[in-house]
Amino acid sequence: MTQFSISASSGIPIYKQLCTQIERMILTDAFSQGEVLPSVRQVASELEVNPMTVSKAYGLLEERGVLTRLRGKGMAVAKQAPEKSNKERLLVLSAMIDELVKEAMLMGLTDDELTKLFKEKLDAEYSLAVIKE
Amino acid sequence: MSTVISIESLNKSYDKQSVLSGLNWQVSQGDIVGLLGKNGAGKSTLLKSLLNIDEIDGGQISVFDEAHHSLSISSKEKIGYVPQENDEITWLPVTDLIKFRKQFYQQWSDEKVNYYLDKWQIDTRKKMIELSPGQAQKVLIILALASMPKLLIFDEPASALDPAGRRDLLKELVNLACDENITVIFSTHITSDLERLASKVAILDKGKICYFDDLDKTKENVVQLVMHGQQLSQQQIPNALRSDIKGNNTYCVVTKVDLIWLEEQKQQGVKIDIKPMGLEDIFLEITAS
């Protein structure tokens, strides 16, 4: 089973795609804290990518404190303080919002229109959450 | 990283038509290099030259630190080469061809040979000439992999392979890259094959390696800039390969974003979008002029 998916022809380097995906999966609890990630070899042969690419992504996430290297076991999701993970959450979201804002600008939307739309979506999400409760 | 291939001022021409001129290139151990070039750019010529299949007109080539024209047997054994077209004896049945080739090598994996013969359903009783181009190419790949080389050179490996065969080959190369510090060069004009696997990309154009860098760095560096409400000429943009003015905007491809320049533009209130480019577009831009 392939847990990750990449687009090789995209202009975004594969290691970056993997980093973003793993970070998102951790934030959405697809990977829980302490969970061991698939080995470099597994990911490389499943995605048919250069193993160095996978190592690079894992290494970068280790540097950022997202993953921890377990001796002989591979990479695991780091245990994080809640406030730190909140900061990380905002960081990932911020990148997604950048994309959105760019698109909106290209479409020629005004700041007000965009803010209004965002507010509407937020309200809709909240009322949905209330109904569910 | 030690250097596996080193080429200096390589010249090669056919019938007074210059193909390679003053070509310099170095490939390190562990590199998986995608060699890109248009049809007729000289990719096969370059590969055949460094393997001493084609005689060169001038320059120096070393492979595993030995002059390429006088490689020792142990160095030769470490090289696997898959040519674009079958250069094996056409009248031998596959099974005899494999036996024949095996004799030349100290190391030979029967296991690998049998695995792929079975997987690719090759009728070993058939002569090479009786096989389809795709099947013949698969036999050549099996022959190259069987001796467990340290340097693998493929000339357009995907040209005759079906998608499943290409996938199998990619998987094998991934495994080799995981287990051993193998060096691979594969020439292609199909960029999607190399985007997954290559660690480096080399572009052959006008007789030279005009571009050689990490694939990741290439994708990070070569980008399209969109300058909104600006009409700039190519000379006004640092590292520009090409620029176009459409309406009020300037679209420009750069080999690297000049961060100081970018900051200056931002300070002046210029809105610039940076758009990543796929390798195919990058290749076309670099070889366009």
UniProtKB/TrEMBL annotation, chain B:
GO terms for molecular function: ATP binding; ATP hydrolysis activity. Keywords: ATP-binding, Nucleotide-binding, Transport. It comes from the Bacteria. Residues 5-231 form the ABC transporter domain. The keyword Nucleotide-binding applies. It holds the Pfam family ABC_tran. The keyword Ion transport does not apply. Transmembrane segments: none annotated. This is ABC transporter ATP-binding protein.
